[in-house]
Design a protein that fits this description.
Layout (H helix, E strand, L loop, with lengths): L4 H14 L8 E5 L3 H7 L4 H22 L3 E8 L7 H21 L3 E5 L7 H14 L6 E8 L1 H18 L4 H7 L2 H5 L12 E4 L18 E4 L9 H13 L7
Helix pairs in contact: 1-9, 2-3, 3-4, 4-5
Pfam families: Prenyltransf
GO biological process, one term: polyprenol biosynthetic process
Organism: Cellulomonas chitinilytica
């Protein structure tokens, strides 16, 4: 429901004020879904939808900063998306490259690409790495940019890294199997050293993770929003955070 502007502003302020400071999520993961459907709903091109979605990212990061979030992970492109037709994929990659360069240029946020960068065109992976290098000394919000990302592949990459490391050291296979535990995967994930996501938001009404942060989200709280990503508002973000704050987190216990 969209409220008249004066009431909307009042409601938004009350929502923000109602968030307990000690119940703000440290790490928020966001599945930026619905760009294409948003574009179709208004008779625009798919590229227009992706561009509007990219334009929304800085707003989300500002909202996250305002309430004290420390890490945001943005799922911008999955490994499955790489199978899209070139006439859609190529403009989308160009939009992602431009968006990442613009975010880095602000010098407000520390960017970290995550995903199978080797599957991306060189110009895309180069743009992502350049953004990481340009912001590595920034002390602000840590932003993971998931491009060419798939949760299953991330876990496979972590196991592969562990096996290669021990193969090079000449570890016996039986000994390796005996030593292997969950921490060996956790310390080799793309998000190593970061807190696991407390809250995962997916826009567009889809109620599934689709492979997003499969390992890290074992104890996450999920929030599914009906709005397409280009229509996602600060009030929607605050509602998600309010819902998170109101839940009793058992963390598997």
């Amino acid at each position: 429901m969209r409220l008249p502007h004066p009431l909307y502003g009042l409601y938004e302020r009350r929502l923000a004020a109602s968030l307990p400071a000690d119940r703000v999520p440290r790490h928020v993961g966001v599945i930026l879904d619905g760009n294409r459907r948003w574009a179709r709903s208004i008779g625009e091109s798919t590229a227009t939808g992706h561009q509007r979605g990219a334009d929304k990212i800085a707003d989300l990061l500002e909202w996250s900063e305002d309430i004290g979030v420390e890490v945001v992970t943005l799922w911008m492109l999955s490994t499955d998306n790489l199978e899209r037709a070139p006439e859609e994929l190529d403009p989308l990659l160009a939009i992602i490259e431009s968006a990442v360069r613009d975010l880095a240029a602000t010098r407000r946020w520390r960017l970290q690409p995550m995903g199978a960068l080797e599957l991306l065109p060189a110009h895309t992976s180069d743009a992502l790495r350049a953004a990481q290098e340009a912001t590595q000394d920034v002390a602000g919000l840590h932003v993971n940019v998931a491009v060419g990302y798939g949760g299953r592949r991330e876990i496979a990459d972590a196991v592969r890294s562990f096996l290669r490391e021990h193969a090079e050291a000449g570890t016996d296979l039986d000994e390796l199997a005996e030593q292997f535990d969950m921490e060996h995967i956790a310390e080799r994930l793309y998000t190593k050293g970061q807190p696991d996501p407390d809250l995962v938001i997916r826009t567009s009404g889809e109620q599934r993770l689709g492979g997003f942060l499969l390992w890290q989200s074992a104890h996450s709280e999920f929030y599914f929003c009906e709005a397409y990503w280009p229509d996602f508002r600060r009030v929607d973000f605050l509602r998600a955070c309010r819902a998170y704050a109101a839940r009793e987190r058992r963390l598997g216990r």
